[in-house]
Design a protein that fits this description.
Blueprint lengths: L7 E4 L2 E9 L4 E5 L7 E5 L4 E8 L2 E7 L10 E4 L11 E9 L7 E7 L10 E4 L2 E2 L1
Antiparallel strand pairs: 1-2, 1-10, 2-3, 4-5, 4-7, 5-6, 6-9, 7-8, 8-9, 10-11
């Protein structure tokens, strides 16, 4: 049906992955839980940006401005960009703040809103439209 690289994979309006490769009969998806790259995100309640990335085997929120009022329970969403990723799609919640006083940015451990598993119903979104 014309699925392209960069399409968002969602379940119950929560981002669970992004299409990274497309062939004639398949689509390969990078799950958010297993990110191999950094993903630009936004913390909705304080309208600040950060990065979601793997660190020592766990998914963390990094590079959040030190003056942002980051707190446990805040919602992490997509940031949105020119590659078709819709802004403000929920991904996770802030689970725990951590870091050192010498760290120039705030950091947090996160909890995904949905953990993908076999048989989960998903939608493929490209440029805001379901495919």
């Amino acid at each position: 049906q014309g699925v392209r690289e960069g399409a968002m994979i969602t379940s119950h309006d929560v981002l669970i992955g992004v299409v990274t490769r497309v062939g004639a009969q398949f689509s390969q998806v990078e799950l958010v839980a297993q990110l191999a790259r950094k993903m630009s995100v936004r913390v909705r309640e304080v309208e600040t940006e950060g990065l979601l990335q793997q660190e020592n085997g766990e998914l963390v929120l990094t590079h959040v401005r030190p003056d942002a009022k980051l707190a446990v329970g805040q919602t992490i969403t997509t940031f949105g960009s020119v590659d078709g990723v819709l802004p403000y799609t929920p991904i996770a919640k802030v689970k725990e703040l951590f870091g050192t006083p010498s760290d120039p940015f705030q950091r947090a451990r996160i909890k995904l809103l949905i953990i993908p598993r076999d048989g989960i119903a998903v939608s493929v979104l490209q440029n805001g439209e379901a495919q």
